[in-house]
């Protein structure tokens, strides 16, 4: 009898000695790690699928590549709006331009261009700098952050990130979810899956058939003049009565630009 009591006592002691707090903590950490890993894997899978879809979309735009026979293939893209703008009209960093389009795709602009070396800007950038990049042959993808979800933004990012003469940025108040700009050309669409986005980029990015004024213009940020990580901020307020008009009246920077 005494021996049985001793055995039972030892069992109770062993049971009481199990570190339940430690076990619970390890379990919580394991579950948390599994959730994080699962989310990361799902995001990686989604991004891989997005890249694959983008590669297929770009391949499907071969017919929209510029050629001597078809110097501006964007004319065959439904919804593209065009306008004629004079180049080399530059304003100072403190000046605003009373643009005739929203977002603008030509006209007077800052003497410093925005970095358009495949940059994805997390915040809206001063419009006057972005327009200058269009003069150099870039395509600017603008989106309304209130109308484009995470999946749609991923689709837009893969079109811009690391792509030469391309830039992506939010544009608060945009009347459509997405708007694409090249010099003198604009296309507004409702979905990031719209095939016209890739057609527009193929047709107009670095299309030097007289489509943009400054062939050979750089997209690299000018040292000391434009900080890619902290660019001039977007101003959503309407331009004042002293704003430079679309004919260039009131511009203080003359016809020169940085580096000239």
Notable characteristics:
alpha/beta; 260 residues; six-stranded mixed sheet; two-stranded parallel sheet; 5 helices; single chain
Q: Residue ranges: pLDDT <50 for 5 or more in a row?
A: none
Mean pLDDT across the residues is 89
Number of strands: 8
Bulk shape: globular
Number of helices: 5
Helix share bin = 25-40%
> What's the order of the H and E elements?
HHEEEEHEHEEEH
Cα(first) to Cα(last) distance is 103 Å
Strand percentage:
5-15%
Please outline the major beta sheet: 6 strands, mixed
Rg over CA atoms, rounded to whole Å, is: 27 Å
Structural class by sheet pairing and helices: alpha/beta
The spatial strand order of the largest sheet comes to: 1-8-7-5-6-4
Task: Write a structural description.
With 260 residues, this protein is α/β, with parallel strands linked by helices. Among the domains are: 41 residues; 131 residues. The protein contains five helices and eight strands, in the order ααββββαβαβββα. The strands form two sheets. A six-stranded mixed sheet has the order 1-8-7-5-6-4. A two-stranded parallel sheet has the order 2-3. Helix 2 packs across helix 4. It starts with a helix and ends in a 56-residue tail after the last helix. The mean pLDDT is 89.
């Amino acid at each position: 009898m005494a021996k049985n009591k001793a055995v039972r006592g030892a069992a109770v002691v062993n049971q009481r000695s199990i570190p339940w707090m430690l076990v619970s903590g390890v379990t919580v950490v394991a579950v948390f790690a599994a959730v994080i890993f699962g989310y990361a894997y799902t995001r990686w899978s989604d991004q891989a699928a997005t890249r694959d879809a983008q590669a297929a979309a770009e391949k499907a735009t071969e017919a929209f590549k510029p050629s001597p026979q078809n110097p501006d293939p964007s004319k065959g893209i439904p919804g593209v709006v065009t306008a004629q703008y004079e180049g080399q009209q530059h304003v100072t960093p403190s000046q605003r331009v009373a643009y005739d389009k929203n977002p603008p795709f030509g006209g007077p602009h800052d003497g410093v261009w925005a970095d358009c070396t495949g940059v994805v800007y997390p915040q809206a950038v001063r419009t006057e700098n972005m327009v200058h990049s269009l003069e150099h042959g870039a395509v600017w993808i603008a989106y309304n952050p209130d109308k484009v979800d995470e999946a749609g933004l991923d689709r837009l990012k893969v079109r811009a990130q690391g792509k030469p003469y391309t830039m992506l940025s939010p544009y608060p108040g945009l009347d459509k979810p997405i708007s694409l700009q090249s010099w003198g050309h604009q296309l507004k669409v409702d979905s990031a899956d719209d095939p016209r986005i890739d057609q527009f980029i193929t047709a107009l990015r670095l299309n030097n058939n007289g489509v943009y004024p400054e062939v050979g213009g750089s997209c690299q940020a000018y040292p000391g003049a434009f900080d890619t990580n902290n660019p001039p901020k977007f101003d959503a307020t309407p331009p004042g009565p002293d704003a430079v008009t679309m004919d260039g009246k009131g511009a203080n920077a003359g016809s020169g630009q940085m580096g000239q």
